[in-house]
What we know:
zinc, NADP, Quinone Oxidoreductase, Chain A, domain 1, alpha/beta, Rossmann fold, about 350 residues, about 30% helix, oxidoreductase, 2 domains, ADH-like_N, Zinc-type alcohol dehydrogenase-like protein, seven-stranded mixed beta sheet
Amino acid sequence: MKAVALKRYLPIADPESLLDVELPDPQPQGHDLLVRVHAVSVNPVDTKVRSPKDKTESSPRVLGWDAAGVVEAAGPDVTLFRKGDAVFYAGSITRPGSNSELHLIDERIVGPKPRSLDFAQAAAIPLTALTAHEALFERMAIDLGGRHAGRSLLVINGAGGVGSIAIQLAKLAGLRVIATASRPESQDWCRKMGADHVINHKEDLAAQLRAAGTPEVDYILNTVNTSAYWTVMGDVIKPRGRISSIVETKDPLDLGRLMQKSVSFSWELMFTRPMFGTPDMAEQHQILKQVSEWLDAGRLRTTLTEKLSPISAATLREAHAKLESGKMVGKLALEGWR
């Protein structure tokens, strides 16, 4: 099968940073689905894993953690899908990624592809939707049924992939959403996603929140830089509020700043369930199934803003470069093999 892989960890401008390779067709076991991949999307995790480091792989390593395709075959323990089903998923960081014609994925972290979306539109959704859903409704315990309607959520970097879908999910729960974005096009995008108010994260957030009539917020979702916003998050979160971040940090965090307000802080990593094979791993199947239904009902919209073709080392290098520029709005997907 065709695949895009790496052997060395290099700057994306290096033509050997991602390579076109031929690999053996994988065989499904246990709960595995064998999916013929039609489209993939890129996320910051792709660029972080690929980023330069003093390491060489003995065999090609395939990246990619967002895909949509069709089930070709299934392992003996599969019960949720069958051959011919169209699916979408994010996958597990502990297994080979989805940048290959054929891909093995555990059925318990796979959802039915939204019927109303094409493969590229669908591939843009899973990783970000799982991340945002888990952060909002599990980590921060926001009630999806509307019990917390009217409360305020600050989404730092609202125009990114996770921010784009988090805004939409928060609005389903009835929250008032304030998103940050610095450029006119990214600010417009946040409003299109449903943000009630947009402020500039390159300016004084606290002052802008006061000007917007919301000096403190009930919840904060940080999707871009934990340490850089740690102080201001502590300043603007309400007493007994909740903060969740999806971005790791090498800097120590002063958790003591949150004590006086009894603020809860949590990390969100959507790979945790598949990485550790948690007993509730199949919850990701349920989340993606629900997201698929919301997309088909028009309650959510795809966050795809750009599509490249075909899926190849050259186009994936282009996609990584766009993501590393820091100027992406929404999501970028690649569709079709040569």
